[in-house]
Amino acid sequence: MIFAGINFPPIAELLDWKPIAFGSTAFMFNKIAVLTLLSAAITLILFFVAGRRQQLVPRGIQNIMESSVDFITNSVVIDVMGQEGLAWVPWLTGLFFFILFNNLFEVIPFIQMPATARTSVTIPLALIVYVTFIVVGIKKQGFGRYFKSALVPSGVPVALLILLVPIELLSTFIVRPFALAVRLFGNMLAGHLLLVTFAVISEALFVRGIGLIVLPLPAATLVVLTGYEIFVGFLQAFIFTILTAVYLGESLGGGH
Amino acid sequence: MHSMMATIIAVAANVNLRKGLAELGSGLAYGLAALGPGIGIGIIFGQAISAIARQPETAGPVRSLAFLGFALAEALALIGFVVFVLLKYTG
Question: What transmembrane ranges does the database entry give (chain B) (predicted)?
Fold first, then answer.
């Protein structure tokens, strides 16, 4: 039997986009840059339109945006940071919606690329959160006391501290930003590659006309995986936001 | 000792052998990286189900904590996936 070969595109074609402007310099502007700007613009426009003619009983888009802000306030800030975290709700809401729209671009036809599947988007986000929680901790608790509360857990015998402080240093100041960036990047990259795999299989079966009897299987899997990718997009945006809130809460209050 | 050095030099010099080892390593990397998080996620959600079954009024916070724990455990499996992609396509 002769099997038609599946033409899986090389990974460079899936992830490296051609520059639109300023090609081959550090300021290269390509599809990923367009998508991140579009996500920020959509977030701004959504909240601006929702807040324009505010009514006491919200209707329509104001209702949706108000329930989103309520979701962030209740699930992310109050549960994790307590009352003093309420000042951070606007920033966390913006962060959540920015990451959410970047993730949702994966399933929108003709765009179909999650901007967060490139580390050039997730690493700056993780760095912003990293610098923020360190600076907030230093400002709130003072330089020495912040590092003491972050690195030295309370109620530990002094002899164990020699072992524990390097571990806490590694875990808090080195692993956290790295894990934030890689978690978001890995989830979105894996989802993108899964969708591409099943789309390529479905296209190969459909176009070549060989083995059409099994075409419903990859096609149905593609539909199910698209739904799953929407869920993962929401979940990863929520996880990034709630972990940011946890780190900020530790910087502000220093444990419950 | 001399044969070990000879093997290492032969491996380093042979491009096809290096590429083959990279492909092998990439497969092993993800396979081994998925073991621990698989067990961990099962434990997390099992405990979450027990907690909700014991006290249904704490379902909200328990659900949030379960998803938080899931994402932290999943991150390790995904770091393995990133290692796979790095080894296979750029190694």
Answer: 28-53, 65-87
Q: Domain for residue B15, yes or no?
A: no
d(CA A119, CA A102): 13
DSSP state of B34: T
Domain count of chain B?
1
Domain that holds residue B28: 22-90
The pLDDT of residue A206 = 85
Chain A hits for B75, CB-CB cut-off 8 Å, are: 179, 182-183, 186
Provide the whole-model pTM: 0.86
In a domain, B16, yes or no: no
Q: Which of B61, B78, B85 sits opposite A187 (nearest CB)?
A: B78
Q: Which of A226-240, B5-19, B58-72 has the highest mean pLDDT?
A: A226-240
Whether residue B6 lies inside any domain: the answer is no
Q: Kindly determine whether residue B82 and residue A182, on different chains, have CB atoms separated by under 8 Å.
A: yes
Evaluate whether residue B1 is within a structural domain: no
Contact B89 A187 (CB under 8 A): no
